[in-house]
Predict the structure.
Amino acid sequence: MSVPGPSFRECLRRSGFFPFRAAAVKILQLNITRRCNLRCRHCHVEAGPEQGRQMNDAVLEKCLEVAALPAITTLDVTGGAPELHPRFRELVARLATLGKRLLVRTNLVVLQEPEFADLVEFYARHRVELVASLPDARGERTDRLRGAGVFAAIIAVMRRLNAQGYGRPGSGLVLDLVHNPVGAYLPGEQGDLEADYRRVLAEQHGVEFNQLFCLTNCPVGRYLEYLQSSGNLGDYMLALQAAYNPAAAGRAMCRETISVGPDGTLYDCDFNQMLALPVAGSAPVDIFSFDHRVLAGREIVVANHCFACTAGAGSSCQGATLPTADQQKAAAK
Amino acid sequence: MADDYYEKKDLQDFPRIAEQAPEQGRAFFDYYAKATAPGALSAREKALIALAVATVRHCPYCIDAYTNKCLSLGLTGDEMLEAIHVGAAMVAGDTLAHATQVRKILRQKEM
C-alpha cells in the first residue's frame, strides 16, 4: 500500500526509530479462532460464522507453557469470538491459575446465546478483564458497523455484567470498551470520547464501564476493502501519514507484544497476522520454537499500515498509547 | 486551468504558510490552537461552531476538516446539521436585519 509522501519506514528513520526493535515481550496475545457469531464491516481479522480456523490442541498446550514464563505479564485472548473455541473455558481457567493480567476480547453479543449464558459468572470467578467492542455510544452507528440489533444485545449483556460487578467501582472486575470510527476518519481524543460514552450509556441505558479504548482503524482486512470500494483509501492513508507521531511510535504495542496465530505462527501484531507477515529475521517464527530472549530484541516488521498505530495519541489494543489531556493535567498536579 | 484551484491536496501546504512572514504565521497558529482548544466550551461545542462558520464562509478546506473533526469527536449528522442551520439562520437573519435599513430609507424617501 503506497503513500505519496514518506513511507512508514522512512518516518521511523527520520525520527530515529529505524530499525524498529522490540523492547520486551510482556504481552502474549492469542488469536485462538477466526470464527465469530458476528460479521462486522470493520473487522481486520475478517472473522465470521463461516470461518473455521482455530488453534489446535498442540499449539494451545504450547501457548499455555509460554504463558507461564515469568517475563510474560499480560495474557490477551482474542479471535474471532474466542468463546467459540471448543476449549475456551479450559484455556481461560488454566491461564487464570497463572496469576497474571488476563484479558478476553469479547463481542458481548455471544454471551446472549444460551450455551454461553454461564460465562458472565465464569469470567467473574476467574477475574478476567473483558474488552468489548462498542464503536459508538449510540445504537445507529454501532448497528451500521456490526449488524442490526447488536447495540441492544450489547446493552443487555452489559446490564448482566454490571449486576455481576463488572464495570462497577471497587469491584475489581474490569469491563473496558473499544471505540473505533464508523467510517474513513480518525478517532478523537480518548478522554473526550470516554466522557461522552459514560454520560450517554449511563443516562440512556443505565450501564457502566471502566475505560474506553480508542482504536484507529487499520487499513487491513474488511476495513481495507471498505476504504477501497468507497474511494477513501488515498485520503485515509494521507490522514494517517499526516498524523504520524514519533512519540506514539516509541510506545507502539508491538514493542512489548507477541501475537500468536491459530496455527502457532508468531507475529508482531494482529494486523501483521492478517497480512501474513510473521516475525522477521533470526527470530523464531512459531510458538514451538519460542525464544523469549531473541524475540524480546527482534526487529519488528513494518509497512505503511503501521501508520494506524502511530497516528495522533497512538493506537493499540488497549487504546491510545500516549496520555490523554486529562491524564496529563492530573500528572501535572 | 481552473482545475488547479481548490484542490484537496492544497491544504497540506497550509501548515507551511509560516515559511513566509514567520512571526505573523506562528502568531496565527498559536492563536488558532488556543482559540479552538477545549476551555469553558468543550471540544465538541467548538468543533460545531467551527463547522457552522466553515459552511457560512463557504470554505471547502474547513468544511472537510471540521466534518472529519466532528465525526472523530463522535458527533452525529443530526448534530452537525443543526449547527449548520444555526449558521444558515444567522445568515438569513443578518440579511433580513438589513431590511430595516431599506425600510428606513423608504420612510425617508417616499411621499
The domain at 41-109 of chain B is CATH 1.20.1290.10 (AhpD-like). Chain B has a mean pLDDT of 93. Chain B has five helices and no strands.
